[in-house]
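Fig. S4 source data, part A: sequence.
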Amino acid sequence: MAEIKVTTGQGVTQAIASSLGMSTADCKKVKINVWQEVMKLVKADNEQRIKNGQTTNYTGTSNIDQIGNKSVKNNFTILNGQTMEIDDSIMGKIKSLLLGNSSAPATPTAPTAPTQTTSTSQAIPTTATPPIIQTQPASAVTQTKTPTSKSSASEANIVANTPADGDFKTGSVANNLFNKMMHAEDVKISVISDEISALMSKKNPTPEDIKKIQTALSQGFQKLGGSMTKFISEKYGDGGETISKEAFMKFQNEGLSDAEIKQMEASNNNVFKKLDHDGDGVISAKEMAAFYYAMDFDDKNVGNGSIDAVSYYANMSILDDPNENIFDKKMDYTYNMLSQNEE
Protein backbone atom coordinates (compact mmCIF):
# COMPACT_ATOMS: atom_id res chain seq x y z
CA MET A 1 0.00 0.00 0.00
CA ALA A 2 1.40 3.38 -1.04
CA GLU A 3 1.10 6.05 1.67
CA ILE A 4 1.01 9.68 0.59
CA LYS A 5 1.22 12.43 3.21
CA VAL A 6 -0.97 15.45 2.43
CA THR A 7 0.45 18.66 3.88
CA THR A 8 -1.29 21.97 4.53
CA GLY A 9 -2.69 23.57 1.39
CA GLN A 10 -2.32 20.46 -0.75
CA GLY A 11 -4.94 18.62 -2.75
CA VAL A 12 -4.97 15.12 -4.23
CA THR A 13 -2.95 15.96 -7.33
CA GLN A 14 -0.32 17.99 -5.53
CA ALA A 15 0.15 15.35 -2.87
CA ILE A 16 0.63 12.66 -5.53
CA ALA A 17 2.97 14.84 -7.59
CA SER A 18 5.02 15.75 -4.51
CA SER A 19 5.35 12.10 -3.52
CA LEU A 20 6.82 11.41 -6.96
CA GLY A 21 9.27 14.31 -6.71
CA MET A 22 7.52 16.35 -9.37
CA SER A 23 8.02 20.12 -9.35
CA THR A 24 5.56 22.64 -10.76
CA ALA A 25 7.63 22.70 -13.95
CA ASP A 26 7.30 18.92 -14.22
CA CYS A 27 3.55 19.11 -13.68
CA LYS A 28 3.19 21.70 -16.43
CA LYS A 29 4.40 19.09 -18.91
CA VAL A 30 1.55 16.75 -18.01
CA LYS A 31 -1.52 17.21 -20.20
CA ILE A 32 -4.87 17.63 -18.51
CA ASN A 33 -6.18 14.44 -20.16
CA VAL A 34 -3.38 12.56 -18.35
CA TRP A 35 -4.43 14.07 -15.03
CA GLN A 36 -7.97 12.96 -15.90
CA GLU A 37 -6.79 9.38 -16.16
CA VAL A 38 -4.88 9.71 -12.88
CA MET A 39 -7.97 10.93 -11.08
CA LYS A 40 -10.08 8.14 -12.56
CA LEU A 41 -7.63 5.72 -10.94
CA VAL A 42 -7.73 7.59 -7.63
CA LYS A 43 -11.53 7.61 -7.68
CA ALA A 44 -11.72 3.90 -8.54
CA ASP A 45 -9.27 3.04 -5.76
CA ASN A 46 -11.25 5.11 -3.27
CA GLU A 47 -14.53 3.45 -4.25
CA GLN A 48 -12.91 0.06 -3.64
CA ARG A 49 -11.72 1.23 -0.21
CA ILE A 50 -15.28 2.17 0.72
CA LYS A 51 -16.57 -1.22 -0.46
CA ASN A 52 -13.91 -2.86 1.73
CA GLY A 53 -15.10 -0.87 4.75
CA GLN A 54 -11.98 1.33 4.82
CA THR A 55 -11.93 5.06 5.39
CA THR A 56 -12.30 7.32 2.37
CA ASN A 57 -9.21 9.08 1.00
CA TYR A 58 -11.12 12.27 0.28
CA THR A 59 -14.35 13.92 1.28
CA GLY A 60 -17.02 15.72 -0.73
CA THR A 61 -17.83 14.85 -4.31
CA SER A 62 -15.88 13.48 -7.26
CA ASN A 63 -17.98 15.01 -10.00
CA ILE A 64 -15.92 15.76 -13.11
CA ASP A 65 -18.53 18.25 -14.31
CA GLN A 66 -17.86 20.61 -11.39
CA ILE A 67 -14.69 21.97 -12.97
CA GLY A 68 -16.46 25.12 -14.20
CA ASN A 69 -18.46 25.64 -11.03
CA LYS A 70 -17.31 28.02 -8.31
CA SER A 71 -18.26 25.43 -5.70
CA VAL A 72 -15.48 23.29 -7.14
CA LYS A 73 -13.58 23.16 -3.85
CA ASN A 74 -16.01 20.52 -2.58
CA ASN A 75 -14.59 18.16 -5.19
CA PHE A 76 -11.90 15.70 -4.04
CA THR A 77 -11.32 17.57 -0.75
CA ILE A 78 -8.45 16.27 1.37
CA LEU A 79 -8.03 16.98 5.08
CA ASN A 80 -4.80 18.73 6.08
CA GLY A 81 -2.34 16.30 7.61
CA GLN A 82 -4.15 13.28 6.17
CA THR A 83 -2.25 10.31 4.80
CA MET A 84 -3.75 8.89 1.63
CA GLU A 85 -3.48 5.16 1.06
CA ILE A 86 -3.49 3.95 -2.54
CA ASP A 87 -3.18 0.35 -3.68
CA ASP A 88 0.32 -0.40 -4.98
CA SER A 89 -0.95 -1.61 -8.36
CA ILE A 90 -3.00 1.57 -8.81
CA MET A 91 -0.06 3.71 -7.73
CA GLY A 92 2.09 1.91 -10.26
CA LYS A 93 -0.30 2.91 -13.03
CA ILE A 94 -0.33 6.48 -11.75
CA LYS A 95 3.47 6.59 -11.77
CA SER A 96 3.51 5.28 -15.31
CA LEU A 97 1.06 7.96 -16.44
CA LEU A 98 2.80 10.87 -14.73
CA LEU A 99 6.46 9.98 -14.98
CA GLY A 100 6.10 8.68 -18.49
CA ASN A 101 4.58 11.98 -19.65
CA SER A 102 6.35 14.52 -17.51
CA SER A 103 9.98 13.37 -17.34
CA ALA A 104 9.75 13.93 -13.60
CA PRO A 105 12.60 12.73 -11.36
CA ALA A 106 12.23 9.35 -9.73
CA THR A 107 12.89 10.66 -6.21
CA PRO A 108 11.79 13.85 -4.47
CA THR A 109 14.11 16.82 -4.74
CA ALA A 110 13.84 20.09 -2.87
CA PRO A 111 13.35 23.26 -4.93
CA THR A 112 16.69 24.86 -5.71
CA ALA A 113 17.40 28.52 -5.15
CA PRO A 114 16.87 30.74 -8.20
CA THR A 115 20.06 31.71 -9.98
CA GLN A 116 18.76 34.55 -12.12
CA THR A 117 19.15 38.08 -10.84
CA THR A 118 15.97 39.60 -12.18
CA SER A 119 13.27 40.75 -9.78
CA THR A 120 10.97 37.90 -10.70
CA SER A 121 13.45 35.27 -9.58
CA GLN A 122 14.42 36.85 -6.28
CA ALA A 123 13.59 34.63 -3.35
CA ILE A 124 10.41 35.63 -1.58
CA PRO A 125 11.21 36.22 2.12
CA THR A 126 10.25 33.12 4.08
CA THR A 127 11.59 31.19 7.02
CA ALA A 128 11.33 27.86 5.25
CA THR A 129 11.67 26.44 1.80
CA PRO A 130 8.40 27.18 -0.02
CA PRO A 131 6.39 24.04 -0.73
CA ILE A 132 5.71 23.01 -4.28
CA ILE A 133 2.46 24.68 -5.31
CA GLN A 134 -0.31 22.54 -6.76
CA THR A 135 -0.52 23.09 -10.50
CA GLN A 136 -4.12 21.92 -10.74
CA PRO A 137 -6.62 21.23 -7.94
CA ALA A 138 -8.02 17.74 -7.87
CA SER A 139 -11.28 18.82 -9.41
CA ALA A 140 -9.50 20.56 -12.24
CA VAL A 141 -7.77 17.46 -13.46
CA THR A 142 -11.06 15.72 -14.08
CA GLN A 143 -12.12 18.16 -16.78
CA THR A 144 -13.62 16.19 -19.64
CA LYS A 145 -11.90 18.13 -22.40
CA THR A 146 -8.31 18.97 -23.09
CA PRO A 147 -7.10 22.59 -23.38
CA THR A 148 -7.77 24.26 -26.67
CA SER A 149 -5.02 25.76 -28.80
CA LYS A 150 -3.89 29.20 -27.69
CA SER A 151 -5.82 31.93 -29.41
CA SER A 152 -4.32 35.19 -30.62
CA ALA A 153 -6.17 36.99 -27.83
CA SER A 154 -4.55 34.79 -25.19
CA GLU A 155 -1.07 35.54 -26.53
CA ALA A 156 -1.51 39.31 -26.55
CA ASN A 157 -0.36 41.74 -23.89
CA ILE A 158 -3.91 42.71 -22.94
CA VAL A 159 -2.82 45.79 -20.95
CA ALA A 160 -0.58 47.24 -23.67
CA ASN A 161 -2.96 50.10 -24.47
CA THR A 162 -4.62 50.29 -21.06
CA PRO A 163 -4.38 53.50 -18.96
CA ALA A 164 -1.99 53.35 -16.00
CA ASP A 165 -4.86 52.99 -13.51
CA GLY A 166 -6.72 50.40 -15.62
CA ASP A 167 -10.10 50.48 -17.34
CA PHE A 168 -13.39 48.55 -17.35
CA LYS A 169 -12.90 47.16 -20.87
CA THR A 170 -9.54 45.54 -20.04
CA GLY A 171 -11.06 44.16 -16.84
CA SER A 172 -13.90 42.59 -18.82
CA VAL A 173 -11.43 40.96 -21.23
CA ALA A 174 -9.32 39.69 -18.33
CA ASN A 175 -12.38 38.31 -16.55
CA ASN A 176 -13.39 36.36 -19.68
CA LEU A 177 -9.89 34.89 -19.88
CA PHE A 178 -9.93 33.92 -16.20
CA ASN A 179 -13.25 32.17 -16.81
CA LYS A 180 -11.61 30.22 -19.64
CA MET A 181 -8.81 29.23 -17.25
CA MET A 182 -11.47 27.98 -14.83
CA HIS A 183 -12.63 25.68 -17.63
CA ALA A 184 -9.00 24.51 -18.15
CA GLU A 185 -8.65 26.22 -21.52
CA ASP A 186 -5.08 26.93 -22.56
CA VAL A 187 -5.16 30.72 -22.43
CA LYS A 188 -2.77 33.28 -21.02
CA ILE A 189 -2.88 36.84 -19.72
CA SER A 190 0.36 38.72 -20.31
CA VAL A 191 1.25 42.13 -18.85
CA ILE A 192 4.64 42.71 -20.44
CA SER A 193 5.98 43.39 -23.93
CA ASP A 194 8.13 41.04 -26.00
CA GLU A 195 11.09 43.31 -25.24
CA ILE A 196 10.70 42.88 -21.48
CA SER A 197 10.12 39.16 -21.91
CA ALA A 198 13.43 38.93 -23.78
CA LEU A 199 15.20 40.83 -20.99
CA MET A 200 13.81 38.39 -18.43
CA SER A 201 15.36 35.52 -20.41
CA LYS A 202 18.74 37.23 -20.55
CA LYS A 203 21.45 35.19 -18.85
CA ASN A 204 23.31 38.10 -17.25
CA PRO A 205 20.98 41.11 -17.02
CA THR A 206 22.53 44.45 -16.14
CA PRO A 207 21.28 46.57 -13.22
CA GLU A 208 19.54 48.74 -15.82
CA ASP A 209 17.85 45.64 -17.27
CA ILE A 210 16.65 44.57 -13.83
CA LYS A 211 15.25 48.02 -13.07
CA LYS A 212 13.47 48.05 -16.41
CA ILE A 213 11.97 44.62 -15.72
CA GLN A 214 10.83 45.61 -12.23
CA THR A 215 9.17 48.76 -13.53
CA ALA A 216 7.45 46.96 -16.42
CA LEU A 217 6.11 44.21 -14.15
CA SER A 218 4.82 46.67 -11.59
CA GLN A 219 3.15 48.81 -14.23
CA GLY A 220 1.69 45.83 -16.07
CA PHE A 221 0.19 44.19 -13.00
CA GLN A 222 -1.04 47.57 -11.73
CA LYS A 223 -2.94 47.96 -15.01
CA LEU A 224 -4.41 44.47 -14.66
CA GLY A 225 -5.28 44.96 -11.00
CA GLY A 226 -6.76 48.39 -11.67
CA SER A 227 -8.80 47.06 -14.58
CA MET A 228 -10.27 44.17 -12.58
CA THR A 229 -11.02 46.58 -9.71
CA LYS A 230 -12.96 48.88 -12.05
CA PHE A 231 -14.74 45.93 -13.67
CA ILE A 232 -15.89 44.39 -10.38
CA SER A 233 -16.71 47.74 -8.74
CA GLU A 234 -18.71 49.04 -11.70
CA LYS A 235 -20.55 45.79 -12.49
CA TYR A 236 -21.22 44.56 -8.97
CA GLY A 237 -20.79 47.62 -6.74
CA ASP A 238 -21.08 51.39 -6.70
CA GLY A 239 -18.39 52.10 -9.27
CA GLY A 240 -15.92 53.42 -6.69
CA GLU A 241 -12.13 53.19 -6.69
CA THR A 242 -12.14 50.10 -4.47
CA ILE A 243 -14.07 46.82 -4.26
CA SER A 244 -16.42 46.61 -1.30
CA LYS A 245 -17.00 43.28 0.39
CA GLU A 246 -20.59 43.31 -0.85
CA ALA A 247 -19.48 43.81 -4.48
CA PHE A 248 -16.81 41.11 -4.13
CA MET A 249 -19.35 38.61 -2.82
CA LYS A 250 -21.74 39.38 -5.67
CA PHE A 251 -18.87 38.79 -8.10
CA GLN A 252 -17.92 35.51 -6.44
CA ASN A 253 -21.48 34.24 -6.12
CA GLU A 254 -22.80 35.09 -9.57
CA GLY A 255 -24.68 32.13 -11.01
CA LEU A 256 -24.73 30.13 -7.76
CA SER A 257 -27.82 28.85 -5.99
CA ASP A 258 -28.68 29.98 -2.45
CA ALA A 259 -27.43 26.65 -1.14
CA GLU A 260 -24.12 26.99 -3.00
CA ILE A 261 -23.69 30.59 -1.80
CA LYS A 262 -24.12 29.45 1.78
CA GLN A 263 -21.73 26.59 1.17
CA MET A 264 -19.08 28.97 -0.19
CA GLU A 265 -19.52 31.67 2.46
CA ALA A 266 -16.52 30.74 4.63
CA SER A 267 -14.32 30.18 1.58
CA ASN A 268 -15.20 33.55 0.05
CA ASN A 269 -14.64 35.33 3.36
CA ASN A 270 -11.15 33.83 3.58
CA VAL A 271 -10.36 34.91 0.03
CA PHE A 272 -11.55 38.46 0.71
CA LYS A 273 -9.35 38.68 3.81
CA LYS A 274 -6.28 37.61 1.85
CA LEU A 275 -6.93 40.16 -0.91
CA ASP A 276 -7.66 42.92 1.59
CA HIS A 277 -3.96 43.08 2.41
CA ASP A 278 -4.11 46.14 4.68
CA GLY A 279 -7.29 45.02 6.42
CA ASP A 280 -9.27 48.22 5.79
CA GLY A 281 -12.41 46.38 4.69
CA VAL A 282 -12.11 47.01 0.94
CA ILE A 283 -9.88 45.73 -1.87
CA SER A 284 -7.86 48.43 -3.58
CA ALA A 285 -6.44 48.43 -7.10
CA LYS A 286 -2.97 48.02 -5.58
CA GLU A 287 -4.10 44.96 -3.64
CA MET A 288 -5.66 43.45 -6.76
CA ALA A 289 -2.42 44.16 -8.62
CA ALA A 290 -0.39 42.45 -5.88
CA PHE A 291 -2.78 39.49 -6.04
CA TYR A 292 -2.24 38.94 -9.77
CA TYR A 293 1.48 39.73 -9.47
CA ALA A 294 1.75 36.98 -6.83
CA MET A 295 0.09 34.53 -9.22
CA ASP A 296 3.01 35.00 -11.59
CA PHE A 297 5.52 33.22 -9.30
CA ASP A 298 6.12 29.50 -9.53
CA ASP A 299 7.42 27.21 -6.77
CA LYS A 300 10.99 28.46 -7.33
CA ASN A 301 9.90 32.09 -6.99
CA VAL A 302 10.36 32.75 -10.70
CA GLY A 303 7.83 34.59 -12.82
CA ASN A 304 7.46 35.43 -16.50
CA GLY A 305 5.01 38.32 -16.47
CA SER A 306 1.93 36.26 -17.32
CA ILE A 307 -0.81 34.13 -15.81
CA ASP A 308 -1.98 30.89 -17.42
CA ALA A 309 -4.37 28.13 -16.37
CA VAL A 310 -1.60 26.29 -14.51
CA SER A 311 -0.55 29.26 -12.35
CA TYR A 312 -4.20 30.25 -11.93
CA TYR A 313 -5.18 26.88 -10.49
CA ALA A 314 -1.98 26.62 -8.45
CA ASN A 315 -2.82 29.75 -6.52
CA MET A 316 -6.63 29.55 -6.45
CA SER A 317 -6.42 26.10 -4.89
CA ILE A 318 -4.84 27.54 -1.70
CA LEU A 319 -6.32 31.03 -1.72
CA ASP A 320 -9.16 30.28 0.70
CA ASP A 321 -6.90 28.62 3.26
CA PRO A 322 -7.58 30.54 6.53
CA ASN A 323 -4.03 29.85 7.68
CA GLU A 324 -0.97 31.70 6.44
CA ASN A 325 0.59 29.89 3.51
CA ILE A 326 2.99 30.47 0.63
CA PHE A 327 0.52 32.69 -1.20
CA ASP A 328 0.51 35.16 1.71
CA LYS A 329 4.30 35.37 1.50
CA LYS A 330 4.15 35.94 -2.24
CA MET A 331 1.54 38.65 -1.88
CA ASP A 332 3.55 40.37 0.87
CA TYR A 333 6.47 40.44 -1.54
CA THR A 334 4.53 41.74 -4.54
CA TYR A 335 2.69 44.36 -2.48
CA ASN A 336 6.04 45.68 -1.30
CA MET A 337 7.43 45.61 -4.83
CA LEU A 338 4.50 47.73 -6.02
CA SER A 339 5.06 50.13 -3.12
CA GLN A 340 8.72 50.51 -4.03
CA ASN A 341 7.87 51.37 -7.62
CA GLU A 342 5.42 54.03 -6.45
CA GLU A 343 8.26 55.95 -4.81
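Fig. S4 source data, part B ends here. The first helix runs from residue 12 to 19.
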